[in-house]
Specification:
4 helices, mainly alpha
Length: about 130
């Protein structure tokens, strides 16, 4: 079946589920008090790579098909917000790296955790929409 965005629901769903799993893994890593910046950097890089693969599959599946029926704009808006949050994770990582006091470190980690949870909610919203 093809969704209004022109993407196969089944493969699109599995891609978003994989992305959600990557998010969950990064949230768990962030909760680890012994987490190193390098491990976090690798986790964010993997998350961004997963995002690029997901967007690549979306583009490949959409092709030249024009949407019919329901508008894909809510999904596109969520995807735009997801991309923004992924970019902000890089900035958060730089701030975390520059933090010297433990309270600042905890604040930066909490901010990253909030951002990851927001990404999880966006991902869930897309999965529910499909």
């Amino acid at each position: 079946m093809v969704s209004p965005s022109g993407c196969s629901d089944r493969s699109n769903r599995s891609i978003y589920q994989l992305f959600a799993q990557q998010l969950e893994q990064l949230v768990r890593q962030l909760a680890d008090p012994t987490l190193s910046i390098e491990v976090l950097r690798v986790g964010i890089a993997q998350l961004k790579q997963g995002w690029q693969q997901m967007r690549s599959v979306d583009s490949d599946q959409t092709g030249d098909l024009q949407p019919t029926g329901d508008s894909p704009q809510p999904i596109q808006a969520i995807q735009t917000e997801m991309l923004k949050q992924l970019r902000l994770l890089d900035t958060d990582l730089l701030f975390l790296q520059a933090a010297r006091q433990s309270t600042t470190l905890q604040q930066r980690k909490r901010q990253m955790g909030d951002r990851l949870q927001l990404l999880q909610r966006y991902c869930s919203a897309i999965l529910e929409h499909e």
